[in-house]
Design a protein that fits this description.
- It is a single chain.
- By secondary structure, the protein is of the alpha/beta class.
- It has a single domain, classed as NADP-dependent oxidoreductase domain (TIM Barrel, Alpha-Beta Barrel), CATH 3.20.20.
- It has 13 helices and ten strands.
- It has an eight-stranded parallel β-sheet with strand order 9-8-7-6-5-4-3-10.
- Helix 4 packs across helix 5 and helix 7 crosses helix 8.
Length: 344
């Protein structure tokens, strides 16, 4: 396992992050304690040091078990958890981005994790009720107190992330070092604004669901009776076409579809650290092998073409010949724009 710098920070993290949403049986699809321990050891023995959990995962069991697993060498591991999602139903202040919930949630996470500090604290999702000043000052207070080392943001519009980091830079506060988004061959809309923003602000991108819930492994192409699965975002015609191409690429390269799908998220001209998860050790062992894969250009082109998405306005508009003509006075093809690759 190689290591990457976490965005604009100096923190060294492994090139794949282990997501631990599967640690616990409370949601009726996870791993028991023994299986979770085996997954943890498989990842650690491969050189992995970067773990992702959250206060909500398996009703707190994920944090509790992960805390127990890293306790023997706490300073070696990079521990990331989240706040913002509910810890109690029926109480509006037991959820959200505001200071009261932030402080309460971090306190309870530290107790469950049985640790004195969190290496990376994520805002789990933006609630659109708390001002950026309150959020960033609250996070800065936690960093100043040594309870949190670095901060990141998940599932939040690009304009808000940019506003937050600009404010933090102006005030001399801690800035987001990483961005967490859903990104895979079925979900490429982050390429419009979120990924270019992350590159411009030097944020590490940590995609969740790089396998699209398993759809990109090909397991949903047909059910037990051989019929096409029900229509949905991950099981509809478009998803099936993309999954079929992934399977074909994997067969030609002599690897598994999971390795192709995960590597596709990594094979970009910016810092991407996928969050991989597994219920059983052999599933994780398979995913980890993606670091040895380099998808050839011709196969990469096939994957990109079959999964291409409309980036919407203004991106599609600005790419039209008419707009290019009036912006460049008919000289578009003569201008060597060295910045375009960096900005798109």
């Amino acid at each position: 396992m190689k290591y990457k710098l976490l965005g604009n920070s100096g923190l060294r993290v492994s090139e794949l992050c282990l997501g631990t949403m599967t640690f616990g049986l409370e949601w009726n699809w996870g791993s028991n304690r023994s299986e979770s321990q085996q997954v943890f050891e498989t990842y650690s023995n491969a050189g992995g040091n970067f773990f992702d959990t959250a206060n909500r995962y398996t009703e707190g069991t994920s944090e509790k078990w992960l805390g127990e697993m890293i306790a023997s060498d706490r300073d070696h591991f990079v521990l990331a958890t989240k706040f913002a999602l509910k810890d109690r139903n029926g109480d509006p202040n037991f959820a959200g981005n505001h200071r009261k919930n932030l402080m309460r949630s971090v306190k309870t996470s530290l107790e469950r994790l049985n640790t004195e500090y969190i290496d990376l604290l994520w805002i789990h999702a933006w609630d659109f009720t708390t001002r950026t000043e309150e959020v960033m000052r609250g996070l800065e207070d936690l960093v100043t107190r040594g309870l949190v080392h670095y901060i990141g943001v998940s599932d939040t519009p690009a304009w808000i992330v940019s506003q937050c980091n600009t404010l933090a830079e102006l005030r001399g506060w801690a800035k987001f070092a990483a961005l967490q988004v859903e990104y895979n061959l079925l979900q490429r809309s982050p390429e419009a604004d979120l990924l270019p923003m992350a590159k411009a602000l030097d944020l590490a991108v940590t995609p969740w669901a790089p396998l699209a819930g398993g759809a990109l492994t090909g397991k949903y192409l047909k059910d037990e009776a051989g019929r096409v699965k029900e229509n949905s975002e991950r099981r509809g015609d478009r998803a099936n076409k993309i999954a079929s191409v992934v399977v074909g690429v994997a067969q030609r390269l002599g690897v598994t579809p999971a390795q192709v799908a995960i590597q596709w998220t990594r094979q970009r001209d910016q810092l991407v650290i996928p969050i991989i998860g597994a219920r059983l050790p052999h599933q994780l062992e398979d995913s980890l092998k993606c670091v040895d894969l380099l998808i050839p250009d011709e196969e990469l082109k096939l994957l990109n073409e079959i999964s291409q998405q409309n980036l919407g306005f203004p991106h599609e508009f600005l790419e039209t010949d008419g707009v290019k003509d009036v912006l460049f006075g008919g000289t578009f093809e003569q201008v060597d724009n060295h910045r375009k690759k960096d900005l798109r």
